[in-house]
Amino acid sequence: MDILLFNVTTAALMVLMFNGGLALVGQSTLERRRIPWAAVGLTGLALAGVALQLCWSGAMGALDADPSKSGWWRVVTSVFMQNGGFGGAAWNIATLAAVAAFAEWFWGAPLTLGLFAAGILLPEQIDKLWGQTSHSTDPRNFAGSSGATYFLGATLAAALLLRGGADENSGKAVGQGAEQGSDDEAARRGKAVRKNRLLALGVPVLGLAMWFAQENGHGLVSCYGFALGALAWAAFRTVLHPDRDLRQPPRTTVASLTGLVGRRTRSAD
């Protein structure tokens, strides 16, 4: 029962982050956005790690983050090893792909990669400052991408809280060119604001609850990510352009690539 509850709360936290990412970039805008190549690269590394594990039985022993073994590379390579079986690996890779895509569309590729790297390196160092030297605080348990993914997802929740969602900002844009807006529009935007704030605040609140109730490290690293996301928004907000693809459509979009793949699949049949 404890394991089931652990998995349910961990999944619930990711659902909050996923919905927060959708709210931040706008679900209706996804098809018009560029291919998130940094996210594709991270997902490819995770898939390559699984392939390596299937081809080499010693991959986990050589690349995991077991503190009893030496190797400066382990803290990084362990992220691309998976130790949760087929289901755990599929979940980790799927959530990494989605969260990294949302992050790239909002933060941009360079900052996304920097935040993901921070999700790999910072939690263990912060734990040491707090005297938490046991790996029980590390959701990866020597391997797995979930810790860095949850860290990155939490940065999006912080941005959602501080900037607001795409539906809120579109409402502001409409209001600039018209009078103070109708009552219906004001009610719609007010509902969106409340929903987005609840989504954003739910991440650190649930994360802390998971940590104190279960010692679930996914919750703790999510709090770290939320804090760094707030700092990143404060530091880089003037240079971020999350709506650039909507103002200047890229040559290759998610919709165009999906359509191309679909046509080739049908022609092959």
Automatic annotation (TrEMBL):
Keywords: Membrane, Transmembrane, Transmembrane helix. It is a multi-pass membrane protein. It is found in: Membrane. GO terms for cellular component: membrane. The chain crosses the membrane at residues 6-25, 37-59, 71-93, 105-122, 142-162, 198-213, 219-240. Its main location: membrane. InterPro entries: Rhomboid-like_sf (IPR035952). This is Uncharacterized protein. It comes from Streptomyces cellostaticus.
